[in-house]
Write a structure and sequence with these properties.
By secondary structure, the protein is mainly β. The chain contains twelve helices and 34 strands.
């Protein structure tokens, strides 16, 4: 009698439970096969006989029963090494006949253009020189399709093809039809009352498809991103007082007609809450809970803000740790009054479990050095476990922008009071090569090529080299930043720069600046930063020869009379400019540059050595597209630490954004500055403030303030030592346009002033000097009224006039970079100010 079993494909149940007769009737196999040694193996070519026998484990007494045979058969099938296994009884022995799976010789991918072969090979389980398995191949095809779906290509088709080769070998070819990207055709919000759908689209990362979507990828459907958007919406509402908010669902539906996904977020807003009271409690006898009040960012009467609550808990817990309460835990409790829509907050400080950090294990950093990651932690091995400090470290690691994902979890340590921190990371590319282009009415066309690395050599260093070339501006720069100088949280920056500003319709002269500036940056608080800097740079001015030749002097440098000299009183007194103020020379007759400009040219290169600092306060909700918050930048520079120039320059710039109604954002912008001289040194014209549309829109660059008013000269702007500016602006979306277009409009009113020029108005000449426009003592006479030993004087306007304007603008957050168009009409201006009603500026990186 003979027992027959045959297994094909994945019919595992049949292998175990069904016996197929092979030339006889069913019998009890153990009656003939008593031990493992009585098993013979046939058909094997690569797998050893003993290896196959080892899957049959004898029972009591070393004998094989039916159960042991079934288990061995099942184990052999599960190895994936065989496509067929038979067990028969032949002549009193148990015969295991196997048909081995083929060996994969080559794996190829065809049709893949968007995903490289290397990425696909790393994802599949089938490998060259590995065992061929049909179930595994089908699984690999699904894995490949999933890779494409993650990048938004849901129409992908993957067809595996098996090509048989001699010697039981096969080649495996995956033919891929990639299809086009599947975009998000519409995003809808249901249940939102307090905030419009237009506003909520600013909160989420997913975008609707539009004509320019090919320049980005936010419109490609990504289920993980949609799920993350649910959390972003929830956190947005919690930040704005809606403590009961629930984002019930994020529904996605594929529309075959639109060939894209329809995404709908269902929201239950609830009511907005305000803070009724803030109290502090503690179970630690020696800790005064009220002393924590100064670390609370939550105030009575304010709108409930879950984000401010979280930051308060973090700062309180860290402060308690600093005071020696390493295991203190701060737990906020909120008691809601549903009728009055208020919440009473209690911060409870308790003694937490005495748990220590045994190890910090870092995984996934193949390029970034371990110490770059560890220095973002304010704790290390052996320290008390503090969840607030761990959360802060996770946030810092995410802000580095070195990693696609950062997750810190805990695992039990070697004892109950020990934990192990596991830092799981996924690195991403940190190098950038950028070709940028732009155009503005101020600088003309401009192009920049730059290369930068945010994680240089995996050491967390920043390095950048850039070259700029344009119509009126050219130059280059090298920058380097070490964010942890000597392992302290102090950023050291080094900048080497060269800038060349060419003469244009706004200035008659050009400048060249070559300098070096080291700086130190300190983060005082999350919203407050301090920078200390030193700058040393050499600057020189250039002029076309015809702007500095003074062709109307009475005597030429060799002492002979100038045939072009015009002493006419009518000429000399044109536009009310007296002969005395110009020394009667008429040097501006052929379009001469202003005296301060020519004096800078005569003085040659000037070296400026200055120390300075900046204090920056920033509570903006979004640095790129702010809708709420305050930004204040105060800076001072002190020149005179060596060099040729001495001054004290102070400036402040403040912007306050606040949401108004119907997605309209209000902006109040205030600015001011003052330049002081010291040490008896004369201020240079180049060190003065130069203002235009950066102060009051509707005016040309360098169009505001003191100006040389000689009608025959270039009428150069001289700048001022004092300025102030105020602007009120309303920014509003174009509701009739899709949000993804990124267009919004603005209306504004500006006012400001620039005055008090303190630069050179004349300069003395020695007997030996032989400069165009200067008079030697022997050249003085009563006809010209020239003063011996002086150069041409300066007549200029310096009225402290309030300039004001109103205007409209278009702001475009385009895929080409931020663009802005402004049209402003001046309401009040100085007599000699220059108007430019239209202004455009913008740029891109590609």
């Amino acid at each position: 009698m003979m027992l027959g079993m045959r297994v094909r494909g994945g019919l595992l149940a049949a292998l175990i439970m069904v016996a197929v007769p092979m030339g006889g009737t069913l019998v009890n196999a153990p009656a003939a096969a008593q031990t493992v040694a009585s098993i013979s193996v046939e058909g094997n070519r690569r797998v050893e006989v003993e290896t196959i026998r080892s899957y049959f484990k004898p029972g009591p007494g070393g004998r094989l029963g039916q159960a042991q045979i079934d288990d061995g058969l099942k184990a052999l099938i599960e190895t994936g090494l065989f496509q067929d296994v038979r067990i028969n009884q032949v002549g009193g022995r148990l015969v295991v006949t196997v048909v081995e799976n083929a060996v994969i010789g080559r794996i190829a991918f065809e049709g893949n253009k968007k995903v490289k072969d290397e990425q696909l090979s790393a994802e599949i389980q089938s490998k060259p020189r590995g065992t061929f398995s049909r179930p595994m191949v089908q699984s690999d095809a699904q894995r490949i399709a999933e890779i494409y779906r993650r990048s938004g290509r849901y129409d992908v088709r993957v067809t595996p093809e098996i090509i048989e080769q001699p010697n039981n070998r096969v080649d495996l070819v995956f033919t891929i039809t990639e299809g086009s990207k599947t975009g998000v055709k519409s995003i809808e919000f249901v249940g939102n009352v307090a905030y419009s759908s237009y506003r909520l689209k600013d909160v989420i990362k997913t975008r609707e498809s539009n004509l320019l979507s090919f320049l980005g990828g936010a419109d490609v459907y990504d289920p993980d991103r949609v799920e993350a958007d649910r959390d972003l919406i929830r956190r947005f509402y919690l930040k704005n007082g809606y403590a009961d908010v629930q984002v019930v669902a994020a529904l996605t539906e594929y529309d075959p007609d639109k060939k894209g996904f329809l995404v709908t977020f269902k929201i239950d807003e609830g009511q907005q809450y305000r803070v009724a009271s803030v109290d502090f409690q503690t179970s630690i006898p020696t800790l005064d809970a009220a002393s924590m009040r100064s670390f609370s960012r939550v105030s009575v009467g304010s709108v409930y803000n879950a984000e401010a609550l979280e930051k308060s808990v973090e700062e309180m817990q860290i402060e308690a740790s600093r005071r020696g309460y390493a295991f203190a835990v701060v737990r906020p409790r909120g008691d809601r009054n549903f009728e009055q829509h208020t919440v009473s907050i209690v911060f409870a400080v308790d003694e937490g479990p005495r748990t220590y950090i045994e190890r910090i294990n870092i995984r996934g950093n193949t390029r970034t050095r371990d110490y770059v990651i560890r220095r973002e932690f304010d704790l290390s091995e052996g320290d008390a476990y503090n969840r607030a400090l761990v959360d802060r470290a996770e946030r810092r690691l995410k802000n580095l922008d070195f990693f696609k994902s950062v997750k810190i979890v805990t695992e039990p340590g070697s004892s109950t009071d020990r934990v192990i921190l596991i830092v799981d990371l996924e690195e991403k590319s940190t190098g950038d090569f950028s070709v940028s282009g732009g155009y503005s009415t101020t600088d003309g066309a401009l192009a920049e090529v730059s290369i930068s690395e945010r994680n240089f050599l995996g050491r967390g260093l920043y390095a950048k080299a850039a070259v700029t070339y344009g119509q009126y501006a050219r130059g280059g720069s090298l920058s380097f930043v070490d964010p942890y100088l000597f392992d302290y949280r102090v950023a050291l920056g080094l900048d080497l720069f060269y800038r060349e500003q060419l003469a244009n319709s706004y200035i008659a002269y050009g400048t060249k600046t070559l300098g070096f500036s080291p700086r130190l940056g300190f983060t005082l608080r999350e919203d407050l930063a301090l920078q200390l800097r030193y700058s040393i740079y050499q600057q020189e001015i250039s002029l076309p020869s015809q702007l500095a030749n003074c062709n109307n002097v009475q005597f030429l440098p060799d002492g002979s009379p100038n045939p072009n000299f015009n002493p006419s009183p009518a000429f000399a007194n044109a536009n009310g400019i007296s002969l005395v103020s110009t020394n009667g020379l008429g040097c501006y007759f052929d379009g001469e540059a202003s005296l301060p400009v020519r004096k800078e040219l005569q003085n040659g290169k000037a070296l400026t050595s200055a120390v300075g600092y900046s204090l920056n306060y920033n509570t903006l909700d979004n640095n790129k597209n702010p809708t709420d918050g305050l930004l204040i930048d105060w800076k001072q520079d002190f020149a005179g630490v060596g060099g040729d120039v001495k001054y004290i320059k102070s400036a402040i710039d403040a912007k306050y954004y606040t949401p108004l109604v119907a997605d309209i954002v209000g902006l109040i912008h205030l600015q001011g500055g003052i330049l002081n001289q010291f040490g008896g040194s004369e201020l240079r014209m180049l060190d003065h403030f130069q203002m235009g549309p950066n102060l009051v829109r509707g005016f040309a660059p360098n169009g505001i303030g003191p100006r040389d008013i000689n009608p025959y000269g270039t009428r150069d702007a001289l700048g001022g030592t004092k300025y102030w500016g105020a602007s009120f602006e309303l920014q509003m979306p174009f509701w009739f346009l899709p949000k993804e277009v990124g267009l919004k409009g603005s209306v504004y009113a500006d006012a400001g002033g620039l005055w008090d020029y303190k630069g050179p108005t004349s300069w003395a000449a020695t007997n030996e000097i032989n400069l165009p426009g200067c008079i030697r003592p022997t050249q003085a006479n009563s006809t010209t009224g020239a003063t011996p030993g002086t150069c041409t004087g300066l007549v200029y306007d310096d009225g402290n006039v309030v300039r004001s304007s109103v205007g409209v603008g278009i702001i475009w957050a385009s895929p080409f970079g931020p663009l802005r168009f402004d049209y402003a009409v001046p309401l009040t201006k100085g007599q000699f100010d220059r108007v430019q009603q239209f202004k455009f500026g913008g740029g891109t990186s590609f």
